[in-house]
Amino acid sequence: MTHLQNRRKVWDDRLLESPEPLRAVLAALRTREGPRILMGDFNLYANIASPIIKAAGFVEVKHGPTFPVDTPDRSIDYIALDGLHAVNVEVVKLPVGDHRAVVVEVEAGAKRLSSAKRRPGAERPVPPKRKAPAKKRAPARKRPVKKKAVKKKAVTKRR
C-alpha cells in the first residue's frame, strides 16, 4: 500500500500531476516475483494513472469515486493487480480518513475485471459468492421417424 505525494500545487481545484513516482514504484514491483498488487492514494487522475498502470502490465481495478469522503466526485485511489483478478469491488465510507475505502476481494489468476461485481459508492457489505447455477440438461431429442420405403409395382397395360 502506498501514498504517492505529488507536488501539491492546486490550480482550478486540480492537482498538478506528476506521474514519475508511480512509474518508479511499478518498475520496482516488476522486478519482484508475482503475483503483485499495488494499492493506495496515487494523487493522480485516471487519464494519467490508468495508461501508466496498463503499460507496466498491471490491471486496474475499476471502482467509483472515493474523494472527498463526504461527497466523492473523483477517484485518485487505485488498486493495480498482476497475476490476480478482482472478484468483488466496493467503495465504502469509513468513520476515519479523507477518502472512502476501496474494498476488493481478489483471487489468483489473471482475468479481465468485467466479471467483478462492482458497487461504486455502495455502503453495504459485499454479498457472499453464489454457487453457479446447475447446468440445465438439454431436452431429449425425438428420434426421427423413418419412413418405410414403399415399392411401387410397375404396372404394364396389355392391349
CATH homologous superfamily heading? Endonuclease/exonuclease/phosphatase
Distance between the termini: 107 Å
By CATH, the architecture is named: 4-Layer Sandwich
As for the number of domains, it is: 1
Tell me, briefly, the overall form.
elongated
What's the SSE pattern? Answer: EEEHEHEEEEE
**What spatial order of strands do you see in the largest sheet?**
1-4-6-5
Question: How large a portion of the residues is in β-strands, by DSSP E?
Answer: 25-35%
Number of strands: 9
Question: What is the top-level CATH class?
Answer: Alpha Beta
| Largest β-sheet summary | 4 strands, mixed
From the structure above, extract its key features.
159 residues, alpha/beta, Deoxyribonuclease I, Chain A, 4-stranded mixed sheet, 3-stranded mixed sheet, 25% strand, elongated
The gist of it:
The protein is of the alpha/beta class.
Could you walk me through the main structural features you see in this protein, from its secondary elements to its overall organization?
The strands form three sheets. The protein has a four-stranded mixed β-sheet, covered by helices on one side. It is elongated. The chain has a single domain, classed as Deoxyribonuclease I, Chain A (4-Layer Sandwich). It is 13% helix and 25% strand. The model is unreliable at 112-129 (pLDDT under 50). By secondary structure, the chain is an alpha/beta fold.
List the helices and strands and how they pair.
Layout: E1 2-3, E2 10-11, E3 14-15, H1 20-30, E4 36-41, H2 46-55, E5 59-60, E6 77-82, E7 84-92, E8 101-108, E9 117-119
Parallel strand pairs: 1-4, 7-9
Antiparallel strand pairs: 2-3, 4-6, 5-6, 7-8
